[in-house]
Amino acid sequence: MIANTRVAERVPAVFFNLGYIRMISLVAAMGGLLFGYDWVVIGGAKPFYEKFFHLVTPAAVGWAMSSALIGCLIGAVTSGILSDRFGRKRLLILAAFIFTVSSVGTGMAANFPMFLAWRILGGVAIGLASVLSPMYIAEVAPSAIRGQLVSINQLTIVIGVLLAQIMNWQIARPVPAGATAADILNSWNGQMGWRWMFGVTAIPAVFFLLAMFVVPESPRWLAKNGQPGRARRVLARIGGDAFAQKELEEIEETLANEIARVDFRELLDPKLVRILWLGIFLAIFQQWCGINVVFNYAEEIFAAAGYHVSDTLFNIVVTGVTMFVFTFVAIFTVDKLGRRPLMLFGAAGLSITYLLLGSSYQFGLRGWPVLALVGIAVACYSVSLAPVTWVILSEIFPNRIRGAAMAVAVFALWFGCFVLTYTFPFLNAGLGSAGTFWVYCAICAVGFVVIRRRLPETKDRSLEQIERELIG
Length: 472
Prior knowledge:
Blueprint: E1 5-6, E2 15-16, H1 18-52, H2 58-86, H3 88-107, H4 112-140, H5 146-171, H6 181-186, H7 188-199, H8 202-211, H9 219-224, H10 228-239, H11 241-254, H12 270-288, H13 292-296, H14 298-304, H15 309-333, H16 339-362, H17 368-382, H18 385-395, H19 402-454, H20 463-470
Antiparallel strand pairs: 1-2
């Protein structure tokens, strides 16, 4: 039996079944693990599938890297409509199924159009999971530990990233220094290695698919869809009968003006527009801060610093370990220090680091100084923008339109990611590594100013309290 553990909440003598809460949160966060794995695995496979499909132009390279983002946009938009109609749980099950089939399909692709088609389908799963996993966790978590639990979703993303990096490193056989494109194409890496890098995603995807059948539906979705009895039972298992009664009353109060179906026009309500625009800005800023190019275009970044292909795969693992360690820092500080201080720290830290990183390229520094600065940038991102953005997006939107609002914000996130990923080859070719990172430096400086002026603090507040404070 799982022991109940007391957590300081808004009312005294409330005991939460933390073992149960963490279990269902971890299962939902498996969507984040697959999101992280699928998103980063392509960076390690890139030197090999490019040779296999003979991709040589910036447009072809950018399209291969960014094609999954088309699917992400589709998944993000449809998640708002479908999750408010069919529930968070069913859509997460669908995401797990799509992850399974798309990873196998990508690994078996015989030509570039099929590769793109399977990547786009996998992107749909990423789009679904990126909206639903943090939203589900926020809707089952007590307010005192909500930031920590939603941050677990980011931790599983990081674990997925790290697993992809390690698998790429271990699957790929050593590439001799000076190997030509023909040598790589005719090697095991060029013919089969990259296929296994994508295909092994099916293993955790199947586990996620099976595990999702044992978690309950979101109590807030149940209450929103006329099932208060089921919602009460879920809440009672989380915090007992008294907690369930109090939470259900608050949920029903905020749903007093509930809309019958998802209507994106509701988001144009003057009371909601300001909050929606804040969510859209934070979502785009999380991507335009530039850190994803470190993972997706690691070959170019480290090659410019003097590293060979095999060294680059190891360096990617180093950045993944850094991300893993500093995500734990975020998990244990987000509910103590708050969301706003961590976001400000991340924006400022990235701006300064990119300034130094661009300067190192400008003045010809190579080797470990570049790796160290990349590691510092990853650390700043991992303790701030990476997890805390998801926490904020899962908190600031009202219960009645949370699915639709999250869908719009995450659509903006993936659109921003598409622009970032597709444009990097052109920026790198036109401005060089130095100029490109200076552009990201300026973007992070702008982000710092906006966060300082516009972002409220949401820690230690229930979702219903946040709604009353932000919307009225």
